[in-house]
Amino acid sequence: xSRDAFAVEAGRLPDGDGPAVFCLRRPPAVTRTALxxxxxxxxxxAARAALAAAAAALARTGCAALTLDPAGTGDAPGDDAAFTxxxxxxxxxxxxxxxxxxxxxxxxxxxxxxxxxxxxxxxxAADAAPPAALVLWEPVEGPACVRQLxxxxxxxxxxxxxxxxxxxxxxxxxLAAGGTVDLDGFPLTAALHxxxxxLGAAAWPGPGLVVATGPDTRPAEACxxxxxxLERLDLRLPPFWNTVGxxxxxxxxxxxxxxxxxxxxxxxxxxxxxxxxxDPTDLLPAERFVSFPGAGGVLRGVLHAPPPGTPVRGRLxxxxxxxxxxxxxxxxxxxxxxxxxxxGWTCLRLDYGGRGDSDGAPAVATIAxxxxxxxxxxxxxxxxxxxxxxxxxAAICSGCKVALFAAADAxxxxxxxxxxxxxxxxxxxxxxxRRKTWDVLRAYGRKLLQRETWxxxxxxxxxxxxxxxxxxxxxxxxxxxxxxxxxTLGRLRSYRGSILFVYGGSDPDAAGSSAAYDGFCTRHxxxxxxHTVPHAGHSYYxxxxxxxxxxxxxxxxx
Length: 558
Description:
Helix content: 40-55%
Distance between the termini: 40 Å
Strand order of the largest sheet: 11-12-13-15-14-16-17-18-19
CATH superfamily of the largest domain: Alpha/Beta hydrolase fold, catalytic domain
Shape: globular
CATH class of the largest domain: Alpha Beta
Structural class: alpha/beta
């Protein structure tokens, strides 16, 4: 039981229901259930904290909240290219049926975000037992969703290459011809594109809540016209599904839990004598959901075991960035762990406290607490696989700093694969903040070249306050943080493992950090390799860029 007095289970739906994966927050007495439908692509990762906070808020009111990962997304089995709107809808209905079997007396609510809201609205009336109510967060019709995602792809392309290598019209022609497009590290197939184009406002005769969080309220208004039982709530928030960093969505979670509590009649639906119809730790034959106590509550993650008979190569801990979760950007931790497990590595993908499905409040996490979580995970991995070979860490962005902090006090960690490691302590150049501000300026400058940006400006849909904060608030560190980083660098001078540094060629911090770490490792005789992925950004948002990162890391791990 977590510190919030609700249990957290995760696993794969029973084989008869399909390959989807779920995370269920279950209170001691269940009076309602909620099925949470995330958006696809990178919006899922960005919104994960908000959806987890909503699930926790619902569980505290007696609502068992299930967050769904359809096949080919998140932790679920399957390849991204096999994910379609049809498989997404199938898994939604399968999860709804499983919840009904588990809690037969409890009324069910569906909560969807963005395209997930559009899917929930479309499928609600078609379900064998329609939900008692719907909650739609910032619904977006499929064509608009695709247009916005392609806009982001073109902006990232211009930042990497100085120009958009492919026009949007050419991308759309490629999809119409049955091709597949690289959507910032996700394959957008022609089948998925066609399915998304079909998603729009749909009729719904039941009650519900539609929440508009941004200045464009037209999608919410369209939903209300076709579903007159929907109540409307305008709650201004940053676009938390498309924001790097954490957004405080507590008001949204509280408003949602309050509305469900007032509008959906709760009934006792938990039968103590009912056996669970699935093993909550079973994800795939070689993958399982794991949990262990940490300083701030229960830590959770996914363990990948090598297939039987595979020669043992080592144990590898994956550490996400500051606001990330165990899947990594564009699901690259999932792909990496599965590939490396097949080659003999026991891999643990961790959620820090206050991130993903681990206990804790996101706002109280620090690099120090994340380091403590990483050290706890290393200790758990040592005990879980005592004969698993050498220990290694793979990390991205701020997770690289955590990896260095952890390795400084763990001499048995003999390898560090650091993707986009930011320099720290006295290695950090004074120009780092200016470089990042200049990169933000370039990004907004590129956006101003897009017609979509001018349309938003004319409609009053650009959040000027957010843009201003991004431009005038460079990253800063406290004096205590800088001293802790220098102390860690002092301990790392005696590190005798090997380090792989991977950087993206268009990452504004890459040149300075790469040179700083190269000089540090050379001065202190630390074995290291530097590799640059040409044109890639900080998070390698491209299928080819991600593939090069994984190939380079696999080869280096040996």
